[in-house]
Amino acid sequence: QVQLVESGGGLVQAGGSLRLSCAVSGGTFSMYAIGWIRQAPGKERQFVSAITWSGGRTYYADSVQGRFTISRDNGRNTVYLQMNSLKPEDTAVYFCAAASTVRFFTAPKGYDYWGQGTQVTVSS
Q1: pLDDT (tens digit, 9 = 90+) per residue, 20-43?
Q2: CB atoms within 10 A of CB 79
Q3: Alpha carbon 41 to chain centroid distance?
Q4: What is the pLDDT of residues 43-61, one digit of tens each?
């Protein structure tokens, strides 16, 4: 059973930065990718970014490309999301999730295991 625990959310002004962390435990050998998915109030979950666990290939939604950077530390079983130039529209609960297969991993439906989420609020 894969477990994921997010940390690092908070309140920041527009233009600021935050770094989210996702500590991963259990069954890491079976994972294809770790992703970040966000959900704003009243909206559906939205894919943000993902990184393949073994090869380290990265993927980004168009809305965050060039502003967000995903990385991993396999020795610590931790995935990071560095978020720069934050905008009010980035306000959401950010979930870390694990995908077991390559299918649909650039969409929320591709993820099998989820963390509890961390709130990111960007003020204007």
Answers
A1: 999 999 877 678 999 999 999 999
A2: 27
A3: 17
A4: 999 999 999 988 889 999 9
Phi and psi, residue 85, nearest 5°? 50, 50
Q: How far is it, in rounded angstroms, from Cα 68 to Cα 85?
A: 8
C-alpha separations of 21 from 49, 70, 73, 83, 95 in Å: 13, 10, 10, 11, 10
Q: Of 114, 108, 122, 94, which Cα lies nearest the Cα of 20? A: 94
Q: Which two tokens stand for residue 95?
A: 């979930």
Q: DSSP state, 57?
A: -
Average pLDDT over residues 96-113: 91
- With CA atoms as reference, report the closest residue to 111 among 38, 14, 8: 38
